[in-house]
């Protein structure tokens, strides 16, 4: 059977005019923002919220060049992979609605005898990222295309992913003339609401697995894991990166340099270029420390080689197997400490 390859990513506004549409698509996704409202009410409410939030976010995008680099980076990755694979490679940008019609048209042209191997640019699985795309596909693709999809669910501890990440960190240390035994490595992953984990999302566990695997590769550094980019006032995964940065001296053990590493991000975008660069690093520097942002994997050569291998050789799942089946309570193990159950 021949293969077609599909690279999926968040997408990001390609200019300031796309910010509101991007936020609307993101916030009206009920895999990302989960409310008890019917879908039409949820969409009406969060379309209004997106419009207001865009007024705050547009200046942030303006400070990082007026756009997110995710779209271009994903397309560049696909172009690079085509040079090696000599096979059809499509891209899908979840929250760029202007690109969806072109994608849906292109996937319909895939020959019936092709397997479509889907590679998410999300190393750690969450129903709010990879699962959201699977749900979009289940609602928008025909049965034939759905049956062709063959998903790589995640690769949080894949040796090639870890190798690429390790080399990116070592490159960052080398460029700043830093030694491993001199630094603190703050791995910052994107947060999700705690209730997602309490009801079955494996994301926190997979972030922990990635963190501990990378920590072992830097035994002389002081390593810490935190979570960033909370959206509302509900409980999210902790510790929050913002809090850790404010109290950084509690765990640096007198080391003077902190390198902030975007654990769950494979491409730089607003969470790294603005949130880490403009918010977290200055918070650390106010305490008299040197703070450095390690770039995401982007187009590191080892990362490209990792994608080429993982996309071809890793075991796959069907689209249906990545869909969330809503639950309303926690298991007996989680229940005693669960923030949701305590409220009942």
Q: What features would you describe in this structure?
A:
Helix 1 packs antiparallel against helix 2 (39-62) and helix 7 (159-175) packs antiparallel against helix 12 (301-313). A four-stranded parallel sheet has the order 2-1-3-4, sandwiched between helices. It has a four-stranded parallel sheet with strand order 6-5-7-8, with helices on both faces. It has helices at residues 19-27, 39-62, 70-85, 100-108, 130-140, 143-148, 159-175, 194-198, 203-216, 241-246, 270-285, 301-313; strands at 2-9, 89-93, 114-120, 149-151, 183-190, 222-228, 257-262, 290-293. It has two domains: 2-155 and 301-322, Rossmann fold (3-Layer(aba) Sandwich); 159-293, 3-Layer(aba) Sandwich (Rossmann fold), CATH 3.40.50. By secondary structure, it is α/β, with parallel strands linked by helices. It is globular and about 60 Å long.
């Amino acid at each position: 059977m021949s293969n077609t390859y599909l690279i999926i990513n968040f997408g990001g506004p390609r200019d300031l005019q796309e910010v509101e549409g991007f936020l609307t698509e993101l916030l009206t996704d009920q895999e990302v923002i989960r409310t008890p409202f019917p879908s039409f009410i949820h969409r009406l409410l969060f379309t209004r919220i997106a419009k207001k939030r865009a007024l705050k976010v547009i200046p942030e995008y303006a400070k990082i060049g007026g756009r997110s680099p995710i779209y271009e980076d994903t397309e560049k990755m696909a172009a690079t992979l085509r040079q090696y694979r000599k096979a059809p490679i499509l891209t899908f940008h979840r929250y760029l609605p202007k690109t969806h019609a072109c994608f849906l048209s292109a996937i319909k042209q895939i020959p019936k005898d092709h397997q479509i191997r889907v590679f998410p640019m999300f190393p750690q699985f969450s129903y709010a990222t990879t699962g959201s795309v699977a749900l979009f596909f289940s609602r928008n693709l025909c049965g034939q295309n759905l049956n062709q999809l063959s998903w790589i669910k995640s690769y949080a501890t894949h040796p090639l992913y870890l190798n690429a990440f390790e080399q990116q960190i070592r490159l960052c240390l080398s460029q700043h003339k830093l030694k491993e035994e001199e630094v603190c490595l703050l791995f910052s992953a994107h947060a999700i609401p705690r209730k997602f984990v309490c009801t079955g999302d494996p994301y926190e566990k997979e972030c922990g697995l990635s963190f501990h695997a990378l920590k072992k590769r830097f035994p002389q550094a002081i390593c810490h894991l935190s979570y960033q980019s909370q959206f509302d006032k509900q409980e999210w995964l902790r510790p929050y990166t913002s809090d850790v940065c404010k109290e950084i001296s509690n765990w640096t053990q007198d080391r003077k340099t902190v390198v902030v590493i975007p654990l769950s991000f494979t491409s730089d975008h607003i969470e790294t270029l603005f949130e880490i660069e403009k918010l977290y690093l200055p918070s650390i520097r106010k305490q008299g420390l040197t703070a450095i942002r390690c770039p995401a994997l982007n187009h590191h050569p080892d990362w490209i080689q990792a994608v080429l291998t993982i996309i071809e050789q890793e075991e796959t799942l069907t689209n249906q197997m990545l869909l969330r089946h809503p639950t309303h309570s926690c298991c007996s193990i989680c229940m005693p400490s669960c923030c949701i159950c305590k409220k009942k």
